[in-house]
């Protein structure tokens, strides 16, 4: 099957505008006749539901949390990118477009990325109008900071809680539509299947997580905005409930799943501290603006630190290896995430790790230089041109507290160490997934009427996402893309009338869901869901993680298939179907993770190159950098479901064309 990305003709800077000008419309008087389902209420889902409700459609929004505000978008810390050039440092729509394509290691669609860069500026205006309290400079203008993979300051932020503030803005817009009756909100509901009628997406089967009731919901179009699948690794920075189920059910109904092996490992997370840990904590990338990453130059110093005989503050400046500044002088500590993560792994694998955990994995993020630098600036601004060291330190810490206070507090609460006094310990962890459901330029899957937005789709980030671009994509899709493209699809639905939930397709889908639930509850196994999830996570991290190789990937495919079989034979799910049953919820989600994990390993195995977050050890240059194969792998790998044996999935290729950016080896040196 040939994948049609529906990229419009014409110059790239005009594609989106021309495309919008020729899309079909639904008249305001016809919109109340049309129903739309939105699954997920993070930034993409909440903004889409609010926008479509505002336009006059009947919207049903679903989230498994107790409130839309608890979607995982709330956890984003550092900021949101936009090409406003407020800092007058040479930023532009083109530069944001270029940085995103390069950051993704030339594995993203040009047209989608340019559209993202175009609408980025509108997002900031929209959010300011909603009252999002972005940080401002001394004169009251919006402030910016830098993020990885860029040489400009284009990231707008609200302290270390940007995602929360943006989500509250989208939630306020959504709440207004709920109050007006245009959006019907279903909290504590989880989508468990997609219903297709005559090949079109026509509704979902959802489970009420409080009562256990299985419900049928119909619509003329279904939008999936359910986030990423990082929890396939068990340990990740994602919320514990984050899962792939909605996206995977769409895949099993025929939507292609694209580039599943593209996973982002975030370089600045609090290191793993024990085998019973169930979650990892992110320390915002914004901290790399002010912190310098280092390990000791001498192995004996690293060993002494791990043994508790030496403190980092006792290591002299000349005995510290600021390895990112050494290897990548042009970008320093602000290289892209995949580059920073691999560099940390390389140092720890070589024996220079500083954390006393099972793997000795950890590096330092040190703010002492910034305290001195900003302390001197602050003293000078106060008229004190000859400050004492103590005055410099006090003022420098005050500056840091204003910028990053909540992040430093969070770190101290978790580790019981004061990052103002001693360097933070960090290490890479699974954070974001660039892969997802395949969509065309209109964000529609190959199932007519089924759209996918935000992290759940594959569309904008190639093989590696730049920091502060997830929030940008979620809001771009929900506020500025879907309202146009979904309306274009729905223009042909105004005479369809209400979709009945009594159709046999709804009964079939409901029976599929009930069968799976009953199977788990009557399984009489001996081991918990978490037992299997942890086992899956270990296979994924060790063999489909930061570094991969052919042998490990082949082993992973076989091991996951065997684990999946054991899971279905021996998992124990207590309780019943007609009650609040968190173990049942987890079992249904982990069943999907098992299948996805196998596909991720297969995808990584077929992609015989290194690009972005996908690092094959066999394909690296003399300096340990990614070695792409543009001749053979410059494509989007979209997988088609072929039944319960995941090894039978069929790979379809969408060739990537670069007409406006010269494809080249990434260089951050």
Automatic annotation (TrEMBL):
Subcellular location: Cell membrane
Domain (Fumarate reductase/succinate dehydrogenase flavoprotein-like C-terminal): residue spans on this chain: 533-668
Enzyme Commission number(s) from the entry: 1.3.5.1
Positions annotated as active site in the UniProt record: 337
MF annotations from Gene Ontology: electron transfer activity; flavin adenine dinucleotide binding; succinate dehydrogenase (quinone) activity
InterPro entries per record: FAD-dep_OxRdtase_2_FAD-bd, FAD/NAD-bd_sf, Fum_R/Succ_DH_flav-like_C_sf, Fum_Rdtase/Succ_DH_flav-like_C, SdhA/FrdA/AprA, Succ_DH/Fum_Rdt_flav_su, Succ_DH/fumarate_Rdtase_cat_sf
GO cellular component, one term: plasma membrane
Protein topology in the membrane: Peripheral membrane protein
Cofactor(s) needed by this chain: FAD
GO BP term, pick one: anaerobic respiration
Key words, A-Z: Cell membrane, Electron transport, FAD, Flavoprotein, Membrane, Oxidoreductase, Transport
Pfam families referenced in this protein's UniProt entry, alphabetically: FAD_binding_2 (PF00890), Succ_DH_flav_C (PF02910)
Highest taxon listed in the record's lineage: Bacteria
Catalysed reaction, written as an equation: a quinone + succinate = fumarate + a quinol
Chief localization: membrane
Keyword Nucleotide-binding set for record: no
FAD-dependent oxidoreductase 2 FAD-binding domain residues: 35-471
PANTHER family for this protein: SUCCINATE DEHYDROGENASE 2 FLAVOPROTEIN SUBUNIT, SUCCINATE DEHYDROGENASE FLAVOPROTEIN SUBUNIT
Protein name: succinate dehydrogenase
